[in-house]
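Now for one specimen:
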Amino acid sequence: MHFDPYMVLGSAVVGLLVGMTGAGGGALMTPMLILLFGVKAPAAISSDLAAAVVMRPLGAAVHMRAGTVSYRLAGWLTLGSVPLALAGAYLLRLLRSNPAAPAHVEQALGAALLAGAAAMVIRAVLDARTASDRTAMLPDLAVRPWPTLAIGMTGGLIVGLTSVGSGSLMIVLLLFLYPMISAARLVGTDLTQAVPLTLAAAAGALVFGHVDFGVTISLVLGSVPAVIIGSLLSARAPEKLIRPVITLVIFGSGLKYVGVGTTALGWMLGIILLAGTAGWLAVTARRRRAVRAAPWADPGGQARPDRPG
């Protein structure tokens, strides 16, 4: 049985991201186990899925308690994802004669995620210009059953074929199908629908895969407390904070799927994070200077009627 305290620390970082964004778990956890800790690929995939059975329900429970879950939306996603996850696992068994098939699926998924991340940035810029408010209340959310079912089927099939990728892909597709839903509610709903999907995938891993229980215990010890903290943050953090984090995680997942190495990926994400932070500080400073220059203006830049203007 293999136990590594550094693996606990690494899984805590991934768990925090999963709790905050609902995405990135498979794209980050499994490569971390393989590339940094030398775990064989079958054991890494199976152990990751087994740990997720414990991790994701706890994250979902936090969002359920906070009221940031659309159960009808999660139900339609689950209805599509669980059967297709099993079908994907069977299809993967048929494709064993072509070992490159799962890799091709992951590369296509990576390209789709990168395009999705770029589209999310464009949408954020447009929303900033139009002051669009993405705070739809859950009772007012008009669920579109058939497109939602199709998203669930797509995510489930990807899980069955590659054991990773459903969270990032579903988040991207749901963001565009339901553009007015808040990020917290979107993350809560995605984590909730991932519970039965992960159970189905993990059951297949236990039957057909090889679970290293020492690795699984290390992942649980690190990821479970972190996913709870991340879920608490996403359920309460401002929208303007959560959406950039989601975009960054999806972008990193896409880069990983298309074959970017771990070291290069770390440098790229670090540079993007530093550049984004610098840009945010510059914009904030400029807005503060503008407010000081126009003391009688409200935050929207309009003269207040009770002040000289």
Summary: Residues 5-260 form one domain. The chain has two domains: 5-260, 262-294.
